[in-house]
């Protein structure tokens, strides 16, 4: 055991040495160059040390045994006026989402082929894919209200009766289909040219629609959403960080019958953020609560192996998306090109595909290895398999922080393209609302702000992850000292990823 701390100290020093050079940054995701006031290595070292010092402070001051999983919350459903407002808003947002789905498909299929003048690509890849994630992690899981496929299926059930599925979901499948479809989506986004072609995008949305409704009919709505729908799983993960929650108070009756994963957590006092149980239980047991951000991550919930790897993959793919726009990735492509080029197919997409597959595998391998070290340092109080399923939530703030720092300028600047498209979604020269002449304001954010914001976001995200992992460890061990000691491997992983994330954000864009 004595060799483990020495190993981690060595790794930490190597991380620091790797980033000793560099003095400029491009605020990755932003085209303007920004010369840093101090060398980049100082930022990397400072950020890494901030995370390390936060670990020491959290370990020193947070000493609760963690036996009480309660946290401050306000039940909005206690107030009839707010309850009515929430229900009306949910209906309105659902109808709006169905209309947007129709416009996205129809504009993609019949509108202009110019991506920047067509509603479908701009809305799907900027407003929805980037913007919706921010809203979910800050406000709450609005995807439960604005998932147009679920809204349409709910109306179908109201007309023809509740549908329970035609066949049972094979238990061995777990949520592996959701992971597969998420990787496929990441490949389409980063590699396939159809992602930027309105017509092809319209076809893809139609295929996804048929797949989703077919899955709901075949296996049941909740079964398909929690096992086969990658976006439902992803947004449900992000929502655990948010300031709102759905809570079933004081009853586990529906959890025994639930297909969404509640059976893994029957030891917890209440059922939180399970839409299936929320839909089935009586109104008197329902709570819609406001809560502090990130507390939903440290309840100690256990997930299945497929969901665990899905969470790791979500972090890995957004990291690869950023790394793929750096000069370092160009160098890797140059090295691999002579090997890949003689093979059938185009070399560039093949290399991108290899990256999309290998990066999640590397992330998963490192995470599983770290979990094994945590088990060793817990003196047998936590087993490796249990650690893998519970500590994966501590990665969520990191994924959110990197996503925010990577996409913020993209959303704020390129996202303005949606304003003229509101008046002319098909690119036919219309001006329905008088916004077709709107010009993008590229000065809304500059490279200096983007870089400073990225540093703050990444450091804050990693500190929250440290706190989350510490809280989970306290609930799984009998001693404060053992809980702290068990988190040394996770600390070094987070310190390493802090430095790597900032380094990626600081690299110039090559696309």
Range of helix content: 55-70%
Structural class: mainly alpha
Radius of gyration, whole Å: 23 Å
**What's the number of domains?**
2
Query: Main beta sheet: strand number and arrangement?
Result: 4 strands, antiparallel
SSE succession? HEEHEHHHHHHHHEEHEHHHHHHHHH
Which shape, going by the Cα principal axes?
globular
How does this structure look, described?
The chain is mostly helical and about 500 residues long. The protein has two domains: about 240 residues, no CATH class; about 170 residues, no CATH class. Helices cover about 60% and strands about 5% of the residues. The strands form two sheets. The chain has a four-stranded antiparallel beta sheet with strand order 3-6-4-5. A hairpin with an 8-residue loop joins strand 1 and strand 2. Helix 1 runs parallel beside helix 20, helix 3 packs antiparallel against helix 4 and helix 12 crosses helix 14.
SSE order and pairing:
Layout: H1 3-18, E1 24-25, E2 34-35, H2 40-61, E3 74-75, H3 80-110, H4 119-138, H5 143-146, H6 148-160, H7 176-190, H8 198-219, H9 221-227, H10 230-239, E4 244-248, E5 271-272, H11 275-280, E6 286-290, H12 305-323, H13 327-340, H14 347-377, H15 384-390, H16 396-413, H17 418-423, H18 447-476, H19 480-486, H20 488-506
Antiparallel strand pairs: 1-2, 3-6, 4-5, 4-6
Helix pairs in contact: 1-20, 2-18, 2-20, 3-4, 3-6, 3-8, 4-10, 4-16, 7-12, 7-14, 8-9, 12-14, 12-16, 13-14, 14-15, 14-20, 16-18, 18-19, 18-20
């Amino acid at each position: 055991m004595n060799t483990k701390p020495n190993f981690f100290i060595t790794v930490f020093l190597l991380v620091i040495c790797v980033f000793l050079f560099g003095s400029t940054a491009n605020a990755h995701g932003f085209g303007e160059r920004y010369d840093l006031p101090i060398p980049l290595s100082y930022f990397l070292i400072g950020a890494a040390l901030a995370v390390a010092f936060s670990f020491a402070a959290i370990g020193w001051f947070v000493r609760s045994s963690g036996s009480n999983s309660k946290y401050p919350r306000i039940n909005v459903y206690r107030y009839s006026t707010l309850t009515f407002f929430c229900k009306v808003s949910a209906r309105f947002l659902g109808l709006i989402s169905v209309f947007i789905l129709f416009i996205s498909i129809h504009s993609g299929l019949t509108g202009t082929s110019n991506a920047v003048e067509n509603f479908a690509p701009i809305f799907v890849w900027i407003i929805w894919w980037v913007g919706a994630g921010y809203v979910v992690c800050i406000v709450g899981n609005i995807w439960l209200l604005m998932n147009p496929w679920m809204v349409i299926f709910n109306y179908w059930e109201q007309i023809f009766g509740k549908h329970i599925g035609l066949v049972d979901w094979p238990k061995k499948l777990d949520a592996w289909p959701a992971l597969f479809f998420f990787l496929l989506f990441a490949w389409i986004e980063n590699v396939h040219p159809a992602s930027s072609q309105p017509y092809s995008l319209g076809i893809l949305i139609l295929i996804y629609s048929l797949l989703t409704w077919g899955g709901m009919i075949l296996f049941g709505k909740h079964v398909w959403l929690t096992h086969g729908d990658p976006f439902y799983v992803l947004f449900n993960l992000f929502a655990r960080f948010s300031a709102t929650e759905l809570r079933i108070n004081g009853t586990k009756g529906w959890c025994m019958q639930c297909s969404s994963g509640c059976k893994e957590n029957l030891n917890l006092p209440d059922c939180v953020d399970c839409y299936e149980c929320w839909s089935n239980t009586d109104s008197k047991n329902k709570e819609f609560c406001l809560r502090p951000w990130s507390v939903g991550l440290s309840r100690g919930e256990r997930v299945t192996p497929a969901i665990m790897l899905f969470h790791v993959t979500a972090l890995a793919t957004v990291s690869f998306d950023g790394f793929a726009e750096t000069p370092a990735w160009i160098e890797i492509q140059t090295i691999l090109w002579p090997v890949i080029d003689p093979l059938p197919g185009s070399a560039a997409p093949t290399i991108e595909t290899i990256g999309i597959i290998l990066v999640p595998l590397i992330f998963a391998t490192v995470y599983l290895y770290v979990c094994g070290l945590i088990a060793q340092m817990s003196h047998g109080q936590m087993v490796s398999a249990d650690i893998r399923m519970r500590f994966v939530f501590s990665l969520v703030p990191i994924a959110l922080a990197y996503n925010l720092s990577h996409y913020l300028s993209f959303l704020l600047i390129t996202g303005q393209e949606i304003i003229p498209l509101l008046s002319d979604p098909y690119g036919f020269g219309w001006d329905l609302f008088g916004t077709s002449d709107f010009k993008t304001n590229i000065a809304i954010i500059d490279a200096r702000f983007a870089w400073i914001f990225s540093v703050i976001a990444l450091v804050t995200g990693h500190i929250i992850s440290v706190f989350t992992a510490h809280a989970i460890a306290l609930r799984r061990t009998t001693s404060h000292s053992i809980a702290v000691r068990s988190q040394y491997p996770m600390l070094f992983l987070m310190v390493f990823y802090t430095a790597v994330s900032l380094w990626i954000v600081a690299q110039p864009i090559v696309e």
